[in-house]
Amino acid sequence: MSEFEAIYWIWWRELKRYVRDKSRVLSSFIQPLLFLIVLGSGFGFVKISNFNYQTFLFPGIVAISLVGISISSGISVIWDREFGFLKEILVAPVSRTSIFIGKALGGCTTALIQGIFILCLSFLFGINLDFLTFFSAIIIMLLISLGLVSVGLIIASLLETIEGFGLIMNFLIMPLMFLSAAFFPLNQAPDWLKTVSLIDPLTYGVDALRQILIKNSFIPFSVDILVLSGFSLIMVLLGGLAFNRQR
Amino acid sequence: MFAIETFNLTKDFNGLRAVNNISIQINQGEIFGLLGPNGAGKTTFISMLCTILKPTSGTAKVNGFDIIKQKDQVRKSIGIVFQDSSLEDRLTARENLEMHAGLYGVPKSERKKRIDEVLELVGLVDRQNEIVRKYSGGMKRRLEIARGLIHYPKVLFLDEPTLGLDPQTREHIWDYIKKLAAREKITILLTTHYMEEADALCNRVAIIDRGEIKVLDTPENLKKSLEGDVITLEVANQTNLEKIKEFEEVKNFHIVDGKIHITVRDGEKFVPKLLSFAEKEGIKVDSINIRRPSLEDVFLHYTGREIRDGEISEKEGLKSFARRRRL
After folding, report:
1. CA nearest to B100, candidates B166, B50, B152
2. Are strands B204-209 and B31-35 parallel, antiparallel or unpaired?
3. Nearest partner of B90 among A80, A77, A71, judged by Cα
4. How far apart are alpha carbons B41 and B45 in whole angstroms?
5. B94, B111 in Cβ contact below 8 A?
C-alpha cells in the first residue's frame, strides 16, 4: 500500500514540476510545431502515396514530440541529484523500484500531455480522429514514451555528473528523430538508410502511428507493436535494474 | 534502551579511514553534538546512522533497529536535515511537506493537522503557499527541519544545521531547535563546527577529529576539565618558547599561528612570573590575554589544532557549489 502511495507522490511531483515550468511547456511545443509548419509548407509540393507532405509528416511529428521530453524527463534524475532533492527521495522508506516506476510514469504523463496536444491538431490535416483512432494512437504513444523515459533513467543512473548531458542529448535525440523515417517514406529510402532506420525503435512508433492515423504504412502493424512493446519492456527492466544498483 | 548506540563503527573510502572505530551511546531525549572541523568524519558518521552509507565494519542501533539489517525501520523512525538543501524548489512549502508525509506513510487523516503543527513550530505558517525557490536560506533550513519532523521520528539528525547562515539567522534556528526538542520529546544528533552552537544547544558534546572521538562530556565538564585559565600570548620573536612548558603551573601548551596558548591553574598569579621569565629570556611580548576556557580551548586541548583550520575548505566547498549551480 505505502509503495503505491510513494509511486503516486513521485508521479505527482513530476507533473507539478512540468506544469509549473512554463518555459519548458512552451518550448517543448515549439519544436514539433516548427517542423510541422516549416517542413510541411516548404515541401508542400511533394506528394507521397497520394498524401500531401504535411499530412504524411503529421504522424511522425506526433511521435517526435514525445522524444525530447521523454528522454530529458528521465535524465532529470541527474538534476535531482545535483540539487539535492534525490537524497530526500532515496532516504525515504520506499523501494528503488517504486521510485523508478513513479519517475517513469511521471515522464510518460508529461510526454503524453504534449503528444495529445499535437495529436488534437489532426483535424487541420483532414484526419478523422474518432474514439478508436484516438485511443489506439495513445497506446502507441505510451509505448514510445515509456521506452524512452527508461532510456533517460538508465543514462541518468550511469552518468554521475551533468557534464556529459548535452552530448547525450545531441547524439541520442537527434539521430533517433532523423533516422525514424518520420520525415521520409521508408520504402523510397536508399538501402543503407533503410537498414539504419530499422534499427531505430522510433521507426516502428512512427510507422504504427501512420497506420492508425492515415492508413499508410511500410512495416506490418503486428511487427510495429511487437518491436515497440519489446523495446519498452526491455528498457523498463534495464532501467529498474540500473536504478536498484545505484550506490 | 539508547536512542543511538554504535559498536566500533568504521568507514573507509579508498583506503582512507573517515570514521575510526566509534562506539558511543546517546540517551533518549538528549541533544547530542558532534563537534569537529570539516573533514573530521561527522557527515560520514551520521550518514551511516541514517543508512545512506554502509559501514566498512562495526554496526549501530538506532531506536533499537540495526542500521544494516533493518534499514526500513531505521528510516521510518528518523528525520534527517542534510547539509545541503534537499527541498523541491518548484513546489510550495506545504506541497513539500505533503509529499514527504506521503512518502513516509503518515496516515491521511493526520496529515493536515501534522503539517499545520510543524509549520507552526518553525514559524512558516504565513509563507506556506509560496514556492520554495523564493525562500531565503534561513527559511529553507527551517522548512527542512519541519519536514524532518512530519513522520513523528524519534531521532532527528541535523547535519550542520546553520552552515552558511548569518549569525542572526543562526540564533533563530537555535531557538527553533530548542523549542522542538522540548515539545516533540525527541532525541537530536547534530553535527557542527561552531563551538557556540554546541555550547548553546547540546546536553553532551563529542569532539571528533580525523575520524576519532577525542573526548565526550557535557560542555560544562569539558570546560571544567581544563581547570584554570587560558593565557594567550603574542610575541615578536619565537625563541626559547618551549621553556615555558617547564613551569609546574603549566597544564597545557600549544602554539597555533604564532599565538601561544597556555592553560594554567591560577592565571592572575602566573602572568607576572611569565613576564619576568620572558624578559630574562629575551622574548618580546606584544600582547597578553587571560580568560576562562571555552569549548574552543577544549578542542585545541584535545586535538592540538584550532577548529578554524577547517574553514578554508568550507569556503572552497561553497565556491565549487556555486560553480555547479551556475551550470
Report:
1. B152
2. parallel
3. A80
4. 6
5. no
Q: If we measure between CA atoms, which residue out of B154, B185, B178 comes closest to residue B61?
A: B154
Q: Which of A147, A114, A144 is nearest to A21 (CA)?
A: A114
| Separation of alpha carbons A173 and A182, rounded Å | 13
Partners of B164 on chain A (C-beta within 8 Å) are none
Of B35, B26, B32, B43, give the one whose Cα is nearest residue B295.
B35
Total beta-carbon pairs less than 8 A apart between chain A and chain B? 63
List of chain B residues whose C-beta atoms are within 8 Å of the C-beta of residue A99:
none
Contact B17, B7 (CB under 8 A): no
Looking at the partner chain, which of B82, B100, B105 has a beta carbon nearest the beta carbon of A2?
B105
Per-position DSSP letters for chain A, written without gaps between them: -HHHHHHHHHHHHHHHHHHH-HHHHHHHHHHHHHIIIIIHHHTTT-EETTEEHHHHHHHHHHHHHHHHHHHHHHHHHHHHHHTSHHHHHHTSS--HHHHHHHHHHHHHHHHHHHHHHHHGGGGGGT----HHHHHHHHHHHHHHHHHHHHHHHHHHHH--SSTTHHHHIIIIIHHHHHTTTSSS-GGGS-HHHHHHHHH-HHHHHHHHHHHHHHS--SS-HHHHHHHHHHHHHHHHHHHHHHHHH--
Residue A90: closest C-alpha in chain B: B52
> In this structure, what C-alpha cell is assigned to residue A143?
509505448
Q: How many CA atoms, within 13 angstroms, populate the side-chain half-sphere of residue B181?
A: 20
Is the CB of residue A194 less than 8 Å from the CB of residue A168? Answer: no
A8: chain B residues, CB-CB within 8 Å: 102
Which grid cell sits at A55?
499530412
Which candidate, B18, B118, B133, B287, places its Cα nearest to that of A16? B133
Say yes or no for a CB contact (<8 Å) between A93 and B105: yes
Distance from CA of A13 to the nearest CA of B (A): 8
Look up residue A165 and give its three cell numbers.
548531458
User: pLDDT for B273-297, tens place per residue?
Assistant: 888 888 888 888 888 888 888 888 8
Q: What is the mean pLDDT of residues B40-63?
A: 94
- Residue B315 in grid coordinates: 569556503
Tell me: ipTM over 0.85: yes
Amino acid at A94: V
Residues lower than pLDDT 50 in chain A: none
Give per-residue burial for B64-96: e unless 16+ CB within 10 Å, then b: ebebeebbebbbbbbbbbbbebbbbbbbbbbbb
Helix (H, G, I), strand (E, B) or coil at B63: coil
On chain B, the residues whose CB falls within 8 A of the CB of A162 are 327
Residue A88 contacts residue B100 (beta carbons within 8 Å): yes
Split at pLDDT 50, 70, 90, the class of B325 is very low
Residues A102-115 have pLDDT tens digits of 999 999 999 999 99
